[in-house]
């Protein structure tokens, strides 16, 4: 390739990338949304022509990154607290706050496990065959806090807390059990229902009164250059076709709008 | 400052550099003195951890040594638990991860020993093992100390493998680097700052010692 060709090529690719970038939003999302949001954004991009780039992590980590100037347009948290803190700090658009789903946690064990989940629920974890129990890190993952609350509610936390292993986010907790390194885990229902894990394990849905509700909210980031497009994507999530997808992955519909 | 995490990390680094001295010396000696044609392959394998991301190592430790694999099941039947989430698991991961940081300085110092001294020793009837023990090793002290210290320092700074296979258990697998990460993610910048600074100081101290030790002009070290 001659130098002139390279220059032309670089120029063209630069043009192309600016065109594409103009039609793109970047979304930070809680790890439990991995499967659901990937499917949703695929559908959304096909109809709207706006590409959605997804970054998954523990909500606390993402919250921290946004505080430190991470270039996200939209933030899907696994709770309501982090988005509200962003509003307080002037980093989130108050009017855009939207409770998009309520998350649920499940006790998940591999399919060949002999634990009696139906009969014993979380008490099944007291079985000595369970050497390691994976949960998300309660320090920065809402699903970890929910798991810890449920274990305390069931009255088993003190007996089993030395066997807990902490995933960096709820996806890693799921992966610890799926890879066979932990014998049980408390993960997001959305993980248990995701194609990657479906059929590989047995689940027991932790009753809703075992832990504070996992109301999950999204918010447009104030620093974003694409607030309009970000808001449009949030608008799309209210449509029945979108809530249908969320329900498929185990998210229940939000009860009421947050203030 | 999380002292439990600090001492755990120091213990891990000490065990790892101990294991690497025991494994690394014969390996480095073979690399230096062997005339095998395929030696370069072993050298490449030893150097792999320098270029491979820790996630690759972490992934293999999780999957190949997990209870879904034959090797993992064998280990489990032997010890009663899988390697992930245990101190031994971190030791194995870190030994692999720090291997080149010990073996390469070892091999370099063995290779720098004057071959005439080796020939003289053998000419006087001392066997190969005896020559290695009494001539090569004493003359390679600086390289041995460098390798041990570098692998110690490198293990202190290990993060990716620990994050992937550690499971963040206080006193068992929550090392200082993971503790700093947790503090930052939880927004406790003051605590993270303190710990990070201490780690920075220690790392600087160790590396200064390594470079000071290898300074040619410095003759304080009588054994060099």
Essential attributes:
heterodimer, A: 259 residues, alpha/beta, D-Maltodextrin-Binding Protein, domain 2, 5-stranded mixed beta sheet, 11 helices, 21% strand, B: 224 residues, mainly alpha, MetI-like fold, globular
How many domains of chain A?
2
Name the shape of chain A in a single word: globular
The CATH class label of the largest domain in chain A is Alpha Beta
Total domain count of chain B: 1
Question: What is the strand and helix layout of this fold?
Answer:
The complex is a heterodimer of chains A (about 260) and B (about 220).
Chain A: H1 3-22, E1 24-30, H2 34-48, E2 51-57, H3 59-67, E3 74-76, H4 81-88, E4 98-103, E5 105-110, H5 117-120, E6 133-136, H6 142-153, H7 157-160, E7 164-167, H8 170-178, E8 184-188, H9 189-193, E9 201-205, E10 214-220, H10 227-237, H11 240-248
Chain B: H1 3-33, H2 39-51, H3 54-64, H4 70-79, H5 87-111, H6 115-123, H7 128-139, H8 141-156, H9 160-165, H10 176-185, H11 189-213
Could you characterize what this model shows?
The complex is a heterodimer of chains A (259) and B (224). Chain A is of the alpha/beta class and 259 residues long. Chain A has 2 domains: 3-102 and 214-248, Periplasmic binding protein-like II (D-Maltodextrin-Binding Protein, domain 2, 3-Layer(aba) Sandwich), CATH 3.40.190.10; 104-210, Periplasmic binding protein-like II (D-Maltodextrin-Binding Protein, domain 2, 3-Layer(aba) Sandwich). Chain A is built from 11 helices and 10 strands. In chain A, helix 2 runs antiparallel to helix 11 (240-248). The mean pLDDT of chain A is 89. By secondary structure, chain B is an all-alpha fold. Chain B has a single domain (3-213), classed as MetI-like fold (Orthogonal Bundle). Helix content of chain B is 75%, strand content 0%. Chain B is built from 11 helices and no strands. Chain B has helices at 3-33, 39-51, 54-64, 70-79, 87-111, 115-123, 128-139, 141-156, 160-165, 176-185, 189-213. The longest helix of chain B is centred in the N-terminal third of the chain and has 31 residues, at 3-33. Chain B is globular and about 65 Å long. Residues 217-224 of chain B have low confidence and may be disordered. Classes of the chains: A alpha/beta (259), B mainly alpha (224). The A-B interface holds A 58, 60-61, 64, 67, 131-132, 134, 137, 139-140, 164-168, 175-176, 179-182 and B 62-63, 66-68, 72, 81-82, 84-85, 163, 165, 167-169, 182, 184-187.
